[in-house]
Amino acid sequence: MKKLFFALSLVAAVLSLQPLRAQTVELEKTYEITGKSKRGSLANVEYNREKGLYTLYYVTKANDRMARFEIYTFDKDFNFVNLTTDEIEFEKVKAKYTWFKYRGELYTVDGLFVEPTMMGTLVLKRKKITYSYDWLFLGYRKKVEVLEKLKPKSDDGSKFHYHTHFEDDREGVVYVLAGEKEKVSKDADPNKPFAALHLLKYNKELDLLGDVKLNFDYPQSVVIARALPFVYEDDPENPSFKGMTFVFAPMSLKGLKEDPNKNNFTWVRISNDMKLDARVGFESPSPGWKIDELIYDESRDEMYYYGPSAEGRDKYWATAINAKQYKAVQLMKISSNKVEYLTSTNLDEFEAKLKTPPSQKKSPAYAGKKFRIANYYMASNGDFFVIGQNFQPNDKTGPQFKDVLCFHFDNKGVLKAQYGVDTKEANAVAEANGCPQFFIEGASGKSMYWFLREIDGFAPNGRLLTYLRIGKIDLNGATITDLKMPGGDKKPEYFLDPNFPFLETEKGGVVTLFGADKKGKNIWFCRVKLD
User: Fold this and answer.
1) What are the φ/ψ torsions at residue 509 (nearest 5 degrees)?
2) pLDDT in tens, 452-492
3) pTM score > 0.70 for this model?
């Protein structure tokens, strides 16, 4: 899971210390920042462990040529040390502050835009992407202008049938999964658009840079297609791709050949230099596996595919996934380009392994209906966690989010427990947005801490106001404690920073929370000891 930093401020006041079950609040302090800092945005936080110093950078646009930085320094106990101001010309900012991803107020990139016609024929168009810098957001807003159209053809003149694609704006290339499409004739093979597949790579001049052929005996549906990102330090908002992965399932369509084995799925991995790294056939427990997402652990080069399945429906994938209620959940792990495990857990097992916090009266659970995933986490022992919320669809107001759930699988993909948590906040903003959530593993490797960000509403500047409830999951025993607020159960005065809510000052042992009051002038630090 991505580890975020956090931060900041000036005149200190020590607050009361509160015990927190398996966590202890060691220190809380508040500070008042300057008006210029408040009107700016927190751009970066650095922590020097040797010196025990935090450095917090606020940035605003001073004028049309210069940026203004207000730089705060605090010691390890959040005591104010120093404040410096630096006004610097835009073109010199990146050289001095290498973490500041600024490439000018406005710049453009040329690329390709991909879309199919109503009949599914592949069409490529030129596009121009304009990036404009937002000094409040501290990032670029993107506007895409689609230009003239081009229609690529294969060597024999046949057009391609579009399936899916990836646009790499950084490199100005596109990767297109398409099938061969013969000219209409009595001898034309109707299976080709779905069985004779190609992954095509084009640059912005429409040169074909690569063609990986994927031939199947039977027509295929694309279950999920995902790119494996490569993030550049100088431009994190425009990642390139280190590769692409696909999962295919047999298709059923009138006039086409049908694979007699509806469960005959295929996993494919292709590198960005257009080499077929792996092609693995596997038997899905259910043909109706609606894969929600691919979770990629880059450090281990491992992939997890997760999603509900329509267990018991004897139909091909495209029809089987259209279920009002799913009967099971499937989890697949790919390691060393091989299927390490693929499990299916039905709703009866989810119900049997339901755990709730000890003092909670309600017993929310997964019912195979609408569920939004908020985050994933892989523990050091190989356990896999899925966290999210049940929701009710609403065409007028959007999804209405309800109970929070966590699914805890062991290192073989077997469900250890389902944890059901009743949210504290049930206001309109909380129901409309859903709770942000993350995990931090304890230093002992025996516990997982669940950080649930309850939503209180919006601040005057539009910032989402969230505060923490923290619970502890025992990895071996698969049990959960009550979720408690660091400052006790009273209504919070301080809310987490949206970009830098926490910093692990010691690996898994100490977490420093950071936030501010509703107006954003008084800043709050809270150091919590875990385990």
Assistant:
1) -105, -40
2) 999 999 988 788 999 999 999 999 999 999 999 886 777 78
3) yes
Confidence of residue 531 (pLDDT cuts 50, 70, 90): low
Q: Are 346 and 311 in contact (CB under 8 A)?
A: yes
> Is 236's pLDDT higher than 70?
no
3-state secondary structure of 134: strand
Residue 51's φ and ψ, nearest 5 degrees, are -95, -15
pLDDT at 122 over 90: no
pLDDT band of residue 14 (cuts 50, 70, 90) is very low
pLDDT reading at 19 higher than 70 = no
Closest alpha carbon to 108 in 149, 63, 145, 150: 145
Token representation of residue 429:
């903003």
Q: In whole angstroms, what is the distance from residue 245 CA to residue 239 CA?
A: 16
Record the tokens describing residue 340, joined without a space: 């390490």
C-alpha to C-alpha distance for 138 and 186, rounded to whole angstroms: 59
Please count the other Cβ atoms lying within 10 Å of the Cβ belonging to residue 55. Answer: 18
Alpha-helix residue ranges (DSSP H) falling in 25-89: 35-39
Across 318-370, the runs of DSSP E, i.e. the strands, are 328-335, 338-346, 354-355
Angle CA 512–70–501, to nearest 5:
25
Please state, rounded to an integer, the average pLDDT across all residues of the chain: 87
- 8 A C-beta contact, residue 169 and residue 109: yes
CA distance 137 to 383: 36
Question: Phi and psi for 520 in degrees, rounded to 5?
Answer: 80, 10
How far is Cα of residue 527 from the mean position of the Cα atoms in its chain? 26
- What is the rounded CA–CA span in Å between residue 77 and residue 56? 14
Q: What is the 3-class SS of 179-217, one letter each residue? A: EEECCCCCCCCCCHHHHEEEEEEEECCCCEEEEEEEECC
Under a CB-based contact definition with an 8 Å cutoff, are residues 374 and 389 in contact? yes
Other C-beta atoms lying within 10 Å of the C-beta of residue 99 = 12
CB 497 within 8 A of CB 437: no
| Tokens of residue 228, six digits | 């494996």
Determine how β-strand 173-181 pairs with β-strand 208-215: unpaired
Closest CA to 97 of 61, 43, 33, 170: 43
Residue 157 has pLDDT above 90, yes or no: no
Q: Residue 386's Cα: distance from chain center in Å?
A: 12
Quick one: which of 93, 104, 107 has its CA closest to 43?
93
Q: Which residues of 338-353 are buried (b: 16+ CB within 10 A; e: fewer)?
A: ebbebbbbbbeebeeb
Task: Categorise residue 121: left if φ over 0, alpha if ψ from -120 to 50, beta otherwise.
Answer: beta
Pairing of strands 415-421, 354-355: parallel
Among residues 396, 286, 273, 369, the alpha carbon closest in space to that of 332 is found at 286
Phi, psi at 530, each rounded to 5°:
-100, 160
